[in-house]
Every structure is written in C-alpha cells, then in structure tokens.
Write a structure and sequence with these properties.
- The structure is a single chain.
- By secondary structure, the chain is mainly alpha-helical.
- The chain has a single domain, classed as Orthogonal Bundle (Arc Repressor Mutant, subunit A), CATH 1.10.10.10.
- Helices cover about 60% and strands about 10% of the residues.
- The protein has six helices and three strands; from the N terminus they run H-H-E-H-H-E-E-H-H.
- A three-stranded antiparallel beta sheet has the order 1-3-2.
- Strand 2 and strand 3 form a beta hairpin.
- It is globular, with a radius of gyration of 18 Å.
- The termini are far apart.
Length: about 160
C-alpha cells in the first residue's frame, strides 16, 4: 500500500504509547471477562449492559441508544440482547411513544445478577487499574481518553459505566 510518501510514522515514544495502550486495553478486557465469567457466568459486555440499564429511567433504554453507549453495532447488540433474554436478564419491549422503537429492559433477575457481580467487578477494576496510577495520572489519562472518544464518536461524551 503506497501513500505517496505523506505518512507521518510514529516515533519511538508514540509507538510505545500506542502499543502499551492497545495491548493493555485488550488484556484488561480479557481479565474482566474472565473474572465475571468465572464468578457470575456473564461477560464484561453483559455486565456493562446491565449497568447502563440499571441507571436508565425505568431501567429501560432504546436499543439504538444502548448500542451507542456500549460502542456496539445494532446487529451485534441485538444478538447479545437475545442471549441475555434467554438467560432471563433482560427483555425487549415496544417503545410506548414510538411503535417502531424497541427498548431493552432490565428484568429483576438481571438486577439481582448485577448486584452480585458489581463487587467482583469493582474489586478487579480497583486492583488492575485504579491502584496502579495516582489521582493525577487518573485525571490526565481520563482527559486524554475523553478527547480520543470525542474524535471517534463525533463529539459525544463518554458515558459513565462499567
């Protein structure tokens, strides 16, 4: 692939930052998945959905909004919600104000699972991430990630969950 010589290649510090970020993010997601799967039989993505639904008014969200919040395609979310429906954690409902809209709703079993899984999750987050960086580093890193998120999402804010 030729770029006509205009590519600004990463220098050593930039490459170190990029590789550290992407590999650490992958390892972290894997570890969170492992912890939640072994302890509670759910994925980190399932947990994140349960969190967002638990925080939503009426514990329900439009599927399209939920897909945006978890940075997922609508198709992928639909498959995930179907799996979570079979487990009795969530249900799909028609939107009262719009017959075409579909909502994902948190069921009591999903809320109970979230309440059991939350201590496992927060303990892992604290051990694997929070305890590894100072408050000043947390703020700087959060600021940088929020700028990157705005670029990737077209200006949207980072939703606080998981």
């Amino acid at each position: 692939m030729s770029d006509g010589g205009t590519t600004q290649w990463l220098d050593d510090d930039e490459m170190r930052f990029w590789r550290s970020f992407i590999i650490t993010a992958t390892l972290l997601e894997s570890r969170l998945n492992q912890n939640l799967s072994e302890s509670h039989g759910i994925t980190h993505s399932d947990y994140t959905i349960l969190v967002f639904l638990s925080e939503a008014p009426g514990r329900r969200l439009r599927m399209s909004v939920l897909a945006e919040l978890i940075a997922s395609s609508k198709s992928r979310l639909s498959h995930q919600i179907a799996r979570m429906e079979k487990a009795g954690l969530v249900a799909r409902q028609e939107c009262d104000s719009d017959g075409r809209g579909i909502l994902a709703a948190l069921l009591p079993a999903g809320m109970e699972l979230l309440e059991r899984a939350a201590p496992t999750h927060v303990t892992a987050v604290r051990e694997l991430v929070i305890s590894q960086v100072t408050r000043v580093e947390q703020k700087s890193f959060a600021d940088a990630l929020e700028r990157i998120h705005r670029t990737l999402s077209g200006g949207g804010e980072v939703a606080a969950a998981s």
